[in-house]
Specification:
This protein is 11% helix and 35% strand. The chain is mainly β. It has a six-stranded mixed beta barrel with strand order 3-4-9-5-8-7. The chain has a six-stranded mixed beta sheet with strand order 15-16-19-28-20-27. A four-stranded antiparallel beta sheet has the order 18-17-23-24, with no helix packed on it.
């Protein structure tokens, strides 16, 4: 169930689960990665690539730029929380504000094509880009969609309003031709944003122009008051229109350097639509059933460091989220994990730092392991731990497995069968052992 609250005299409705403030998107995993996939008593299948596989190359934000935007957003969020005090305690939490997103790729809208760089986000279900009518200052310098320049534009004008931790983003729905990975999707409903202030500094500093949500239709939002399941997502329409061979998509996220060893023409990763690419993983794909087909939500059995489990019987719901680079968990659990890793909290930002030369243990998460050394991002003389504490349990979520996890595992999102597949990614050091 998704919570809704009213904001003041305007009865502003919180967008319930695109509400988890996307943890800081830090991307810098160090070299060696431990991955032994756990046996889950799940069906294991050797996957084959679909005949009509569509490839979408992805770029990656620079780490230094990422740290700058992330830190500014964290400090801004802390200031907002302090000023709000307990008065806003009934509101829902924002699952993303995208200062944490580091991978992005290209789409186009309209005829002739107007091109945008977007975050392909499994933690939300709306497609939105800035409108030529955008009035907020953080739209300055961004490419903007201009309906008057498209011969395939069809007006819709339903209100769009989505709430983030730092404020709301508002606009209206429109319909036009979406081109994505070379596939044309006619009459796609998307949102033109006229006020992006809710994105804050992340939108100013970030390389992205908008968001393309890859979660399920159930959490796509529109209208005012807030309504869910009102806009079919692009991928769900690709399935229903017979534009993909299989109802699944998969992420291969490259290594941490500007061009990792098996660099694909300078791109940092690849999203495949309609199937999988066996060249991007080793071994078998292990499929985990979803516990909720809204987010890409699964159940984990443990979240352990050196044999100590930091999850509890009622805190084992996790979402796999390409819109953040962090591992996110309950505040108390993350604090305990940080202590176990020898990290210390910076009170001004909520970041955890650790000695850059520390030899950190393995974190075991039911479906796989992460070498905690790969959770470290150098930032000058200190190193930042890529974990964030956030209490999302009221929203039915306990943990978020972001890019720091997905970089080590080739991740397959099976829309039709409501399951997620994992296999060791070929860019992982363990795949070369």
């Amino acid at each position: 169930e998704h919570s809704q609250t009213h904001h003041g005299s305007h009865h502003h409705q919180h967008c319930a689960l695109r509400t988890v403030q996307h943890p800081p998107c830090i991307l810098c995993l160090r070299a060696s990665t431990t991955m032994a996939l756990k046996s889950l008593t799940l069906a294991t299948t050797l996957a084959s690539a679909a005949a009509g596989l569509t490839r979408v190359p992805m770029l990656k934000r620079d780490d230094a730029e990422f740290v700058t935007s992330r830190r500014a957003s964290l400090m801004h969020a802390k200031a907002l929380a302090a000023s709000a005090g307990a008065s806003d305690s009934g509101g829902s939490i924002t699952v993303n504000n995208f200062e944490n997103a580091q991978y992005y790729g290209e789409i186009s809208l309209g005829t002739p094509a107007q091109t945008f760089e977007v975050i392909f986000d499994t933690g939300s279900a709306n497609l939105w880009i800035p409108s030529s009518d955008c009035v907020s200052t953080n739209c300055v310098g961004k490419p903007k969609y201009d309906s008057s320049k498209s011969s395939t534009y069809v007006a819709n004008d339903t209100v769009f309003d989505i709430e983030y931790g730092s404020g709301s983003c508002t606009g209206y729905l429109s319909n036009d031709l979406l081109t994505w990975g070379g596939i044309e999707l006619e009459g796609q409903t998307f949102s033109q944003i006229t006020n992006a202030s809710g994105m804050g500094v992340a939108f100013v500093v970030g390389k992205f122009d908008g968001i393309l949500g890859l979660a399920f239709n159930e959490i796509a939002v529109c209208d005012y008051p807030y309504v869910m399941d009102c806009v079919p997502t692009p991928f769900s329409r690709m399935i229903s229109n017979g534009l993909v061979d299989e109802g699944k998509f998969a992420f291969y996220l490259g290594g941490l350097q500007p061009c990792f060893p098996e660099c694909m023409d300078g791109y940092a990763g690849e999203l495949t639509l309609g199937g999988t690419d066996p060249d991007h993983y080793v071994g078998e794909l292990n499929y985990v059933p979803l516990t909720s087909a809204s987010y890409w939500q699964i159940e984990i059995d443990s979240f352990a460091v050196d044999g100590t489990d930091f999850s509890t019987a009622d805190s084992r719901q996790a979402i796999v989220d390409s819109g953040t680079s962090m591992l996110v968990g309950p505040t108390a659990a993350i604090a305990d994990i940080a202590t176990a890793l020898g990290a210390h909290e910076i009170s001004a930002t909520g970041e955890y730092v650790v000695g850059c030369n520390a030899d950190l243990p393995t974190i075991d998460i039911t479906i796989g392991s992460i070498d905690a050394n790969n959770l470290v991002l150098p930032d000058g003389p200190i190193c930042i731990l890529l974990m964030l504490g956030m209490d999302l349990h009221p929203e039915g979520i306990d943990w978020i497995l972001g890019d720091v996890f997905m970089r080590q595992y080739y991740t397959v999102f099976d829309y039709e069968n409501e399951q997620i597949g994992f296999a060791t990614a070929t860019n992982s050091s363990s795949s070369k052992a």
